[in-house]
Amino acid sequence: MAEQHELRDKGLRLTPQRELVLSAVRALGHATPEEVAEKVRQSHPGINLSTVYRNLETLENVGLVQHTHLGHGGATYHAAEELTHLHLVCGVCGSVGDAPIEAAANFVNSLADDYGFKTDVTHFAIYGTCSACIPVED
Amino acid sequence: MAEQHELRDKGLRLTPQRELVLSAVRALGHATPEEVAEKVRQSHPGINLSTVYRNLETLENVGLVQHTHLGHGGATYHAAEELTHLHLVCGVCGSVGDAPIEAAANFVNSLADDYGFKTDVTHFAIYGTCSACIPVED
DNA sequence: GCTGAAGATGCGACCTTTTCGCAATTAGTT
DNA sequence: AACTAATTGCGAAAAGGTCGCATCTTCAGC
């Protein structure tokens, strides 16, 4: 299985918990630590929340997962390879929509040109009001 | 003093705590609830943290202050009239820079046109790496 | 200026989320 | 098989924020 190499190659030990945390993040798309723990418990009921937190941190350090702030307070974790879209969070209904990163390309470039700021647009959600929640005007 | 009218006009009672919270937010530019409390305590030592939280919420409901997520976890509060800039948060050094809202105008417009999403760019910080923390290349 | 009712405050308890220390266990090396 | 260092589980506890309740204050009406 390639996944073993993937973790070993990053200099990480291969523990059942660690593999399960990584595959839970991948399976869930995006998830809070609590949700990851719940998913992992389906096959490994005894896993401790601390272990989930520590593994998410470890996996983030080697670049296999990343976290994003969607607003409420807690971070949500993504597999690194999935982080190819912006998150459009609706402040009214709470829904999280996606938009391609390219939608922000000009914005990112102008911040780089004008302020020397290298933007990671996926780290924070884009906050606003989704089309379904905007009152229709006449 | 005009400030009294300002609060009364919004239908709020005028309490020393409320006035102090509002002027603390204005004086600080942006601040966490904890920082607001600390500021208020300079002239009103007994103020309770709950009161600060409740007043920030109340003031936000009537539109005098707004909160922004700068990343770490806690929200930071701004006077509404000051919220005319983006926040560029550096993930390396933690600094918070400003950029005019206009820098995002095209981005906001394209999200509106393509996704019907009405963006509030000030609500979340823009995350990335500031010019001082980008390694110089040859 | 008093008075009463609605609203605000202070206080403490409590909840959620995340971190930490430590002893026991386990992975990977030799 | 044995050793060492990383990892886990567990409980305690740090942050950050909310809530109920008794007391006190604001402000409208008199």
What is the CATH class name of the largest domain in chain A?
Mainly Alpha
- Termini of chain A, distance in Å? 58 Å
User: Could you tell me the number of beta strands of chain A?
Assistant: 7
Rounded average pLDDT of chain A: 91
Give the assembly state of these chains.
homodimer
CATH third-level topology of the largest domain in chain A:
Arc Repressor Mutant, subunit A
Q: Could you state the order of secondary-structure elements of chain A as H and E?
A: HHEHHEEEEHEE
Summarize the largest interface: chains and residue counts: A-B, 32 and 32 residues
Q: What do we call the CATH homologous superfamily of the largest domain in chain A? A: Winged helix-like DNA-binding domain superfamily/Winged helix DNA-binding domain
Approximate helicity band of chain A: 25-40%
**What Rg of chain A, in angstroms, do the CA atoms define?**
18 Å
Q: What is the number of helices of chain A? A: 5
Major β-sheet strand ordering of chain A: 1-3-2
| Parts with pLDDT < 50 across at least 5 consecutive residues of chain A | none
**Shape of chain A from CA axes?**
globular
CATH architecture of the largest domain in chain A: Orthogonal Bundle
Q: Main beta sheet of chain A: strand number and arrangement? A: 3 strands, antiparallel
* Overall number of domains of chain A: 2
| Beta-strand residue percentage of chain A | 15-25%
Task: Give a description of the structure.
Two copies of one chain form a homodimer. With 138 residues, chain A is of the alpha+beta class. Chain A has two domains: 2-80, Arc Repressor Mutant, subunit A; 84-128, Ferric-uptake regulator, C-terminal dimerisarion domain (Dna Ligase, domain 1, 2-Layer Sandwich). Chain A has five helices and seven strands. The first copy, chain A, has helices at 2-9, 16-28, 33-41, 49-61, 105-115, and strands spanning 30-31, 65-69, 75-79, 85-90, 96-100, 118-119, 126-129. A three-stranded antiparallel sheet of chain A has the order 1-3-2. In chain A, strands 5-4-7 form a three-stranded mixed sheet, with no helix packed on it. In chain A, strand 4 and strand 5 (96-100) form a beta hairpin. Chain A is globular and about 55 Å long. The N and C termini of chain A lie far apart (58 Å). The A-B interface holds A 69, 71, 73, 88, 90-91, 97, 99, 103-104, 106-107, 110-111, 114-121, 123-131, 134 and B 69, 71, 73, 88, 90-91, 97, 99, 103-104, 106-107, 110-111, 114-121, 123-131, 134. Strand 7 of chain A pairs antiparallel with strand 6 (118-119) of chain B. The structure holds a DNA duplex (30 and 30 nucleotides). Chains A, B: One of its GO terms (molecular function) is transcription cis-regulatory region binding. Chains A, B: Keywords: DNA-binding, Repressor, Transcription, Transcription regulation, Zinc. Chains A, B: Belongs to the Fur family.
